[in-house]
Amino acid sequence: MADIKLPANKVQELRDICAKFNHEKGELINVLHAAQGIFGYLPAEVQDIVAEELNVSVAHVYGVVTFYSFFTMTPKGKYPISICMGTACYVRGAEKVLDEFKRLLDLKVGETSANGDFSISCLRCVGACGLAPVVTVGEKVYGRVAPEDVKGIIAEYK
Amino acid sequence: MDIVKLTIDNTPVVVEKGTTVLEAAKTVGVDIPTLCYMKLDDMEFENKPGGCRVCVVEVEGRRNLAPSCKTECEDGMVVNTHSVRVVNARRTVMELILSDHPFECLVCAKSGKCDLQSLAQDLGIREIHYQGEKSHYKSDHSPAIIREMDKCIMCRRCETACNDVQTVGTLSAIYRGFNSVVAPAFEMDLDHTNCTFCGQCVAVCPTGALIERDHTWKVMDAIIDPKKTVIVQTAPAVRAALGEEFGLEPGTLVTGKMVSALRKIGFDYVFDTDFAADLTILEEGTELLGRLSKFLAGDKEVKLPILTSCCPAWVNFFEHHFPEMKEIPSTAKSPQQMFGAIAKTYFADQLKIKREDLVVVSVMPCLAKKYEASRDEFAVNGDPDVNISITTRELAQMIKNANLKFTELPDDDFDRPMGESTGAGVIFGTTGGVIEAAVRTAYELHTGKELDRVDFKELRGMEGIRSATLDFDGLPINIGIAHGLGNARKLLEDIKAGKSQFHAIEIMACPGGCIGGGGQPYHHGDVTVLKKRQKAIYEEDAGKTIRKSHENPYIKKLYEEFLGEPCGHKSHELLHTSYFDKKKKIEI
Ligand code: SF4
Ligand code: SF4
Ligand code: SF4
Ligand code: FES
Ligand code: FES
For the structural domain made of A79-155, what CATH number should be given? Predict the structure, then answer.
């Protein structure tokens, strides 16, 4: 196991979540979701803890983390861009919006720009379906985003 | 028993409910080709991801072809295993797999023994009609195992071996689709993981994606160096399997031919690890009796049960997974390392040469021994006790390189002093053998009486976990045996929970013990091969005039001239070791 350099309170929060899920192997994906919620990403140390708590191999945890694109091992950028991929947003063209962000920033989902400014991730429904497609940058929410709007959104943070 | 009746290729078949079409077909002589599927009966090891679809068959009335390895027989089923549709589908599947495979057969270490290659030949594939991008992944060169993931076909047999059979959990499928490979956590190289180097993943990999690190060229370099004296030791399990590489029946003993071949290859002395196995028994047996007598005298601190320590993959396993128990195993080094330590002192002195000028080569059924030989604590001023460790398969390669007609070689005998061994040394090669050898000696040392029988049949067999209580002249001694690390884990957990009452436990990492080692000729899923090798080992034991380690005259001489007494000062210095907590050491 690695020497843990994560904030102790957050580690405790993660351990509590594992306990809440009864340390069930079958809850791995849910636990990882919660862990990403706490830390913003899933560094090796976090995967180690999850493996230990659920009594599965770290290799298996890593296998699951790399299988699903909504898990990321890179810390988010200063301006984390999230594109909702819930059903409502998806049918209203979220994917085209995502593609535009990827193109303009030259990043893939889960990546962070070299200068640490931007990162792109995808979310499940954020509960603002009336505004679909929805994009968030940090705390700020953008509704009814069209691919043509993307350039302007990025410019706000440059 | 519920019964199902069906027809396979126009032949009526009756099988037990739950039987797969693949297995049912076998009973009527129909061998449906498989690739990802693998079943090793005695080890309760089944890999059935149903992923490759090479095994498809046509079931009358079903729209889709069915993978026979996963499809259960049903009453009235009519199965066709080689209709035009089936054959075409099978070829398409195969061509698709091959279209993402490097065409390196001419220079691949697995060539001639590769399931993918032989299947392509069996299906008569002469052309690949699909072209696409090929996947690329970094290769990983650990001290024992090389991973070439470009050759991986994602059958996931290695995962089953590592995670289910061995419960080590080093490997997992990662990413998805075209990019998926099998890798350790965080894609670290194997030597930074909790890998034990047992090599069971290598033993079951159908392709050249997982292979041992080839050290044969190092051996040749040493042999042609005029300044070096090169000696070789051969592990017990090698002689029971080497013949298979030359087309001999599994279970053919080739001890004499092996010695001949080694001499012809150019080793200066041909010795036997069995000699060191006898030495191990004296050290380990004495240690057991020491702990036992303290225990009987009421010492509460004494560590029992004593666990054997001659399997380096098992040592890696407890160092990684049970470091809190690292004081329990015997401190005796493995026979490979005992041999090295004695060769580089006692024998080098006899030859009046410096240890650096003596090169010790070992031929092992094992990949973990490559790793073990490279451990820092087994070197003196940077000069390792065992310089090079090669596998049974690598030895076969060297024999072929030397243009030797192996099957026609005359029998030859090991050199003295380190080539003399007893039956007890030989049985180290199979599960149950180490503890039986230890018992033969410990009994006589403890009771002062001669055993009226040396065969302890109650310790033999192939079940994963076995136990027996032996009568040491009124003192009941409880013995446990586990082979396969998953079984070892079960035993260890029982000990931790205070559930087991054993005095001594033998553990071997590989299913079957060293006869099933990761460096042995590939058995391609046929475990009867292991049983035949096991039989051969017991035969060699039965044929020996001396069958108890402490009666080996050269071992007696070694103690008289050099070591003093078992577990004495000099023994401790040369023949014992200590273990490390590796749980914290995994770098990320
Ligand atoms: S050598 Fe053994 S422990 Fe290491 S990856 Fe292979 S099966 Fe797992
Ligand atoms: S490495 Fe070998 S055993 Fe493992 S999945 Fe790939 S081909 Fe199969
Ligand atoms: S059982 Fe034998 S072959 Fe297997 S790892 Fe242990 S020592 Fe090596
Ligand atoms: S689907 Fe995007 S907010 Fe609900
Ligand atoms: S052998 Fe049946 S699916 Fe691979």
Answer: 3.40.30.10
